[in-house]
Structures are given as structure tokens and as C-alpha cells.
Design goal:
about 525 residues, alpha/beta, eight-stranded mixed β-barrel, five-stranded mixed beta sheet, flat
Length: about 525
Amino acid sequence: MSEEVKIKVPLERISLYLKGFVLVLMGVSTALLIFFILFSFQALVQDIAYAQSDSVKAIIETTAIIQDGEAFVQNLVIILLLLAISITGTLFFIINYYLKKIRQQQEETLTKTEELYFKSRHNHLTDLPSMSVLNENLTHSENYSVIMLDIDNIAIFNTTYGNELVDIFIKEAALYLQRNLPSNGSLYHLRADEFVIILNKPVHNQSNDLAKQIKSYFENTPLDANGISTHLNFSFGIAKFTEDTNFNTFTKANIALVEAKRKGRNLIVEFDASMSEYSSYTQIAHKIETLQRYIEEDGLIPFYQPIVDTKTQEIVKYEVLVRIQDGNRILLPSEFLQAAELTGLLTAITKQIIQKSFIYFSGTDINFSINITKNDFLEKNLINFLRQKCQIHNIKPQQVTLEILENIALGESAKDIIEQISALAADGYVIAIDDFGVESSNISRLSDLNANFIKIDGSFIKDLDTNEKNRKIVESLVYMAKKLEIQVIAEFVHNKAVYEVVKELGIDYCQGYYFSEPTIGIER
């Protein structure tokens, strides 16, 4: 028996018993009422008969007082019975009303529970099953094949069109995949740009033929949204189920997908044993080689994204963001920072971005912020390097905000890093805590790090208009910051609805696609 039926059964029984009781009570009351009416009518007939006889006039006169008393008692009983019926009827409707309210609330709770369960197992954008459902299905299946397809250059689309428009394109792509799914296929949406198709008992070469069909459609059919038309290209990785225990079918498809991207993207690659060497470490090694080349050739590019006053929407500063232009592609930090960290190149990146941004803002009064890593402090040269560059390029320390992560001062080096941050604050640099609220948030550390600003992590901001839990978290962080006289910046403000909530919560500054995407230059 389902939970919904279990809840409804006792409520229906209670309602039925209540209705039966009221009907019986009303029936008894009505019968008594009819009895007294008939009794009163019979007494009236007898009174008329007695009145026609002169011999009983004396009796009528002597019993008039008694009859008046009996009539009074009868009327009183009738009034009481009518009152009882009214009260019973009123109680019936009141109780029935509240029973309906209770049933409605329980049904709403059931609906919300089912919605939460559904959302936990499905992608929020397309409502397609997610990774957890895929894992369940794979463990119970044999004789199947996996097609992994990944949208090429999604980062460039986000930079060019913004998150909202790209979401529309992804929904359209998912709709096509659903409508053209074969009868033995199931579709899953793992991440924003990644889908998986499982073919159960595929016929000969079905996986490859389906991938070609999808590839051809998107190459020849533009997607339209808000007056903008564009083509999406996919890279495909295909693998068939085998008894090989080294890699499961899903992992093999993933390796094939990586190989498709390595060979130039927009390709269909089927897994074979020779690809197993392309592990994550091989990919990182390739990224390291690319990164070293760009650093040596001074090929890092600063992009600038404005930070605006929430109330006036006036630009108050710019965040400097590192990018790499690799041919026609713009590489985001997520694509090379892991390689930089493994090889100790983070400090080289920071220094090159400081150098280029200081040159760009030289001789101006424009404020800007730069991301500083733990490695920059561990080298113990950051303070002297900044002082030197400020002097050479005529930059005031007060113009520069140093954005650091809140866990930067954890571990054995904490004391030394805090001393360096204090020295930078004493020089006049502005200190901001980036991605605040994500990991080891600690109120006392805000004081230790001389924080002037906190930047609330974008994961709490991007759905602030629809996610009540995140709204409460952000509201609490803002309240705490105000008490400590620390100003607050909200990242990922990508539409008007989010901006309105940010403004309502009293956040001081905003940053995101709603105001501007990162650009290679700024208007002066």
C-alpha cells in the first residue's frame, strides 16, 4: 500500500464515522420534533371539542394554567432540539473542513517529498536522469553500449552568450536527443555539457550510426534562442560492454571521449585497448606542456570583469581574470590551474598577471582586484614584488584588492602567511576573502586575515531567487559581515531576478553576467 493510500484511509474513515453520527443524531432529533408537533396538534383538537360543551367550560378554565405550562415545556423542548441540530450541523461542517485541510497539507507534503526525490536523481535543467540513476541501471545491465557526448567549447559559449542563453541551447539539444532516442535507448544528463546514451542489446553498429546521426543534425541545424542562432558541436566516446574487469563500460566511453577531444573535438571515437594509456595524468601532462609554453612566451591574457555598486550599478572596480588563448579557444582557469599547481607554476601565473594588469592600469585611479594563491605567500617574495611594481607603474596600493581563499592560512605555514597579509594590509592593499562560505568558514579568521571584503561563493548566489535555503545562508552571511563591518560582494549575479534579491538582502557589491561578462579590455 502506498504512503498516499495509508494517509487517506484513516482520514476517510474518520470523516465517514463523523457523517454517520451526525445523520443519526439529526434523525433522532427530527423524530422527537415530529412527535411533539403531533402531540401538540392532538391537544389542540381536544381543546376545541371541550370548548363546544357547556359542561366542560369550567374544566377548561381550571386547566388553562396547566395547558399553558405544558405548551411552554413543549416549545422549550422544540427550541432545544432545533438548537442541538444547529450546533451538531455546525460542528459537522467545522470538523469536516479541518479534516479536508489536514488531508490537503499531507498531500502537499507528499508532493514536495516526491519532487525533492525526483530532483535529487534528475538534472535540474532538463529533468533527465542523472548520474545516480545511471549507476543503478548499469549495475543491473549486460549486453549494452555507452555513448558519451560532450558539447565542445562550452566555456566559450558561456563567455559569449551568458549562462541563461546557453541553458536554452542545452535544453533544445536535450529535447532533440529525447525525441530521436531509439526504443532500446535511455538518455542521461550528467553535467551541463555532458550527456550519456545507453543502448540495451544494440544491433550491429547501432551506437556508431546513432552518434553519426546526432553529429550530422547539430552540424546542419542551428539552434535559436532570443534572436540568436548558433551551432552546437559534440565530441563522442563509444564503448561496448565486455567482461574486461580493468575498466567498466562507462569508464571506457569516457576514455574514448577524452581521446576525441585530444584529437581535435567534434569527432566520434570508439574505445579500444590502446587508449587506456590516456589517463587523467596523461591529460594533465599535456596541459602542463601547453601551460609552460604559454608562460615562457608571455602568452597569458588578463580579462576584466566589473564589480558594481548594488544600489547605483556604477562600476567601482574590476577583477582581473587569467585566460589563455589556445588557437581559436579561450582556456579558462579550470582547464589549466590543476596542472599549474602540480608543477609549481601558480606563482609564475600570478606574477605575469600582476605585471600585465599594473601596466594596463598604470597612471589611472581605477581600482582592480587580483587573485593571490597560497603558493604566492609560501615563496615569501610577494610583498617586495608588489612594492616594486607599484613604484614602477605608478599604482597606489589602495587601488589593488588582493583576493585570497579563506583556507589560505591553515596548516604549518598559517602564522607566516597571516603576518604577510598583515604587512600587505599595512601597506594599504585591500584584502578580500574569495569563495566565502564554501569550505572552512570561520568568523575569527576574518579578523586574522584583515579582511575588508568577503565575496560570497557563486554557488549560493546563482539560484538565489528560487533556492530558499541558499537565500537564508546568504542572509546569515550578510548579517554576520555587517556586524563585523566587512563589506560583501556577490558573484554570479547573472539575471535581474537574482540581482533584485541581492539588493533586497543589502549586499554591497555585485559581479556577474547581468552587468558584464569578462572582457579583454575596458572602456575608459
